[in-house]
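Q: Convert this sequence to structure tokens.
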Amino acid sequence: MWNLPNLLTLSRILVIPILVASFFMEQPFGSHLAFVTFALAGITDFFDGYLARATGTVSKIGQFLDPIADKLMVGAVIIMVVHANWVEGIHVVAAVIIMCRELLVSGLREFLAGIQVSVPVTVLAKWKTTVQMVALGALVWTKGGPEFGLPAQEIGTGLLWAAAILTLYTGLDYLRAGLKHMV
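A:
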């Protein structure tokens, strides 16, 4: 349990309160803190899996916690950017699509695990995650971006829609694969 890959995964869960608190701090400092925290957490997401495979320390607890840490962090950030009105109006639909897909796929994976069926992560799903993380990174930078002449909110909103479209497609892909084992 206490190997480096698992500690990196746990760190993503432990920084969620810092991410949430940053939205209540004076801006743009809060936005800067949220961005740095989110970026570092994203980097740990890459390295935890890489290190686990490279060092032969892949563990069941790590396989269990990794997707949960990702979903908790993504969910917290989506809730906060909507709460802060950095994503508003029709763009909330993209955020809801992403949240619904994450819950659907989690439930599907849990069900399939119960009948000992594994659904591997597709290359397109990895791209979806990358676009989603860049979108959320830009959105948490919303109040920090103008200082540097960056339209962070606009970039984040556009990428959020791209992630939502990829989310729909990959979610349906997983559902199709899972339905074969439900019927």
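Residues 4-179 form a domain with the Four Helix Bundle (Hemerythrin (Met), subunit A) fold (CATH 1.20.120.1760).
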